[in-house]
Specification:
Length: 286
Amino acid sequence: MSSDAPTVRLDADGKPLGFIDHPEEHRTIRFEIAEEGIGLLTLDRPDKLNAFDERMISEIRSVVWKIAFDEAIRVLIITGAGRAFCSGRDILGLGYENNLPSPQYRAYVRANHEMLDDLENLEKPVISMVNGVCAGGGVEIAAASDFRIASERAEFILTENNIGVIPASGAASRMIEMIGIGRLKEMMMTTLPVPADVAERWGLVNRVFAPDGLMDGTLAFARVLRERAPLALGMAKHVINTCRNTDTETGRLIERLGQSVLIPTADAREGNAAFREKRKPEWSGR
């Protein structure tokens, strides 16, 4: 068997853990600790403008899975190597999947959707640090993140219409409330690039920095999140994401349920004690 073959990780009972990992070093991404509590995942195919293929999807999912279980990492930043954040799906690798019958195609592409769902559901803040070109599926990675911080040189482009298809991995479903139906139609139907300053006005981007200040600005934002109560951050993601898709009465029920989980935690007790004692809280994640 080839040493390149991916292996399925098993738990103590021999059951699959639910993600694919590669036994050797990552080839398409880099992961490092930027500073205490902050992980930095770099998409690393600069010659392809960091377009993702099956291997990159697998490697991203393996890192996100590990971060979910690493209590030392409180915040994840995603960025791209070279002049692009991510140009989306690797077009040159689409020959196989595009020739599948519709049911098999849907099953095959589900891995892409699950990667984006992993980012959205990770119970830790995820920041897309958009350093340059952000196109197609790259926009969908950014949209699945909690925050988007961009270089002044960044551009957001939904290019799929240029090859006769549509963005189909969350652009419409995640971005329609984010930027509004008219602006989303403009992006999807014209394929015109949206500069970073316009994306900020539209609500797609949270902060914009000069290129040489992008990392410092992103790390400063990440430090704010790192100092917040980790359980409450994770619950906030769940409640906000779920309330987006439900009616207001059900949303208030979800809020109460989420709060009922947090109230008895050690962190909630610590937060209340720190407030009374006028000191900085020391979160345990418990």
